[in-house]
Amino acid sequence: MMECSRTSRRERSVAMTVIVILCAAQSLFGCGRLWPFGARGVDSPQVHRATPSHLAWAAPDSERWVTLVLGEGPGTKPLSFLQGSPATEPDRDAASEGQRRVEFGARSFRMQVHPLTVGEWMSVTARNPTSYPDCGESCPVLRVSWVDAVLFANALSEGLALRPCYRVEYEVRDGVQQSEGWADGSLDPEIEVRAAGNHGTGGPRAARVERRFGMPDQRLCDGFRLPTEAEWEYAARAGTIGGTWRGTNPAQGDTPSELPGLDRIAVYRWNSAVDYLGAFDCRAWGVPGAETCGPSPVGSKEANPWGLHDMLGNVWEWVHDAWHVRVASDSTTAINVFEPIACESRREGDRLCDPSDDVFDAQTASRVVRGGAWTTPPGQVRAAARVPFDWRTRSHVVGLRLVQDLPLPGETP
Fold this sequence. Notes:
This protein is α+β, with helices and mostly antiparallel strands. It is 18% helix and 18% strand. The chain has a 4-stranded antiparallel sheet. Strands 6-5-7-13 form a 4-stranded antiparallel sheet. A hairpin with a 4-residue loop joins strand 5 (166-172) and strand 6 (177-179).
């Protein structure tokens, strides 16, 4: 009996030591990375805990976010805006930039002040996927696909004990079904390759992404997500109506000196010269004095009136929406971005009701990127410019910016 008692005490002592080591490891490396008992399910109750130090940039009081409260009271932002470009805007794409009025309803959300950085990405993944590592951790993260972005948003949500905003299911070529992606926060490289396809063997035959966010009073998630296309343009315009928030670019202009307004707010083809190692050889562009070009650290240009940097230029940004051709709508017609539009109401060539906005088969759906990048000519560095990208694309000019829905002031979370 005494021997059993000593053994039991010894086993308990070993178990407590293991727990202490695990707890210490979690405090050093972040919640969810070493926790051995599985990830919290996406529908589990929220667990309140302190923000891990490596995720402090995403904490509620972080200065790396701007909160937008939409309403009719003092200090609020407008409830609607005119999306798209007028027929008179130089370089516009008439087939995809048709204007329409978008109404949001009273709501609140916060958006990153700048695109997600390499440092922020590595705080969750510990991996740097960018093409230009010598640009540094303050440069925007690049070479991430749309699904990479969605899975990152889920992993960050899990790391902060928030309900993820997406459920991802995909099937690899050997028939083994995978789901939840990076929900445990580990961002396993093998899962990453299978989820994003990599355009080669081992990629998925199909993928299905279900969004778990809706109207503010029907939120199914309190974590992070990609902005909708309307949210992105609303924030990029910041209450203005021109091609950029500083006004409309001239139809012609090949150097920063010819586009002084754009040069102050955006990193684009004619002002993206850099001198770090591994940058792109851009001598063929013919920019005077530029031999190598690349992305710049975020926030190197002026912020827009709402305090957001790099909404135009530096890096294209994934948004939530599937690509569709958008023709002009009656500007008095209000379209709520969270409510599905009846497909029977669409006109030929107008796919506003594309069901893939909520659930899509990633084998066939393209997603949208916005804002322009360091390689982009000035004609596309406009608030209304939009480009389709294959969901699997990992490009050296595409990154992301996250948003998070918030309760309205005075509203119970």
